[in-house]
Sequence to fold (435 residues):
Amino acid sequence: MSKKGKASKASGKLGILLPGMGAVATTVIAGVFAVNKGLSSPVGSLTQMGRIRIGKRTEDNQPLIKDLVPVQNIKKVVFGGWDVYKDNMYEAATNAEVLEPSLLKKLKPQLSKIKPMKAVFDRKYAQRLDGKHIKKGKNKMALAKALMKDIENFKKENKCDRLVMVWCGSTEIYIEESSVHKNIKSFEKGLVENHKDIPPSMIYAYAAIKMGVPYANGAPNLSCDVPALIQLAKETDTPIMGKDFKTGQTLMKTILAPGLKARALGVEGWFSTNILGNRDGEVLDDPANFKTKEVSKLGVLEQILEPEKNPELYANLYHKVRINYYPPRGDAKEGWDNIDIRGWLNYPMQIKIDFLCRDSILAAPIVLDLALFLDLAKRANMSGIQEWLGFYLKSPQAPKGVKPIHDIFKQQIKLENTLRHIAGETLLDHLGLDY
Fold:
């Protein structure tokens, strides 16, 4: 433990392992290299640029988060991971066409050295992918053990003191929790028997958690959000979190919907459509994979607006979400929303949003923050579901029987108070003189 606070120091080297080393992963890795070389700034990353208030408002004490809690220095971070394609990170980043070629050329020596390990993959769960850089094993348990060997070797070869894993892979087909996920015994039996309800993302999650490696799920897949893996995380003292990076359209919803609710404005309908041309868009073009994403995106408004508690304002809310694969757009996706609202005396009004965003540019700082905050949680002896990191996710994992928080402002309060707790500082309740 540190002298002040509840987390040990971030000494030594941290390894960040990324299953799925495509557009998002290469943007994170290249971005960290660019920041470390002084070529650019880590915009969007709270661990690098965010500030937090400590003490009374009159004291005006707002240190950087990384100066308040012992966040790992990104100059002492190494990257690795798995992918179904064998391209090194320079080749993969070039193919992704997210970052400018002129920037990538400056980072080519470092990026070219990072080559993905063979992935655990099954086309049944993502039919639009056809990579051949894939592990073979007699069953899913054998594949999990192969991943654990990879993790062990990576840590040793790169002389890492600690590891974290963040899923950056594709959205898998929709799977509901079933009996195989009930406990560790049934889950491990399912691995041996190649149970259909254990997709690749769940095998990665199991391998990481079994080894005590903090794990975050950046896709809407079930992954670690099942009783067996939550139980395992407690047994191995491992922090876990999911699901689905909150980047474009859903980010806007979690910012705007709380404001409409706060002013008691009615919402009749919210129509959302996206066009996206990267690998994620191609995978989501398959209806079975889109359903997983749709479920993740649809729950946001219902939780924030709570129509069952506010029937006069939201009982008839019609919420529709669409994602359309459009190759010419590449990583520069567009999220378009039409919102029909009601004001005083039920007079109708409309809001239109056209968010021309960049998918991987918004996701990259989330990956970095989740990795660094999960490592912090591990050093603060915080195991199991890290609900305070729901700030970054579309469908935040929450304890059984508890509805997840989607309101980004409530999520921010939870995140900041958790950091104050870790730092040994007084929590803010925004009441009385402390506010």
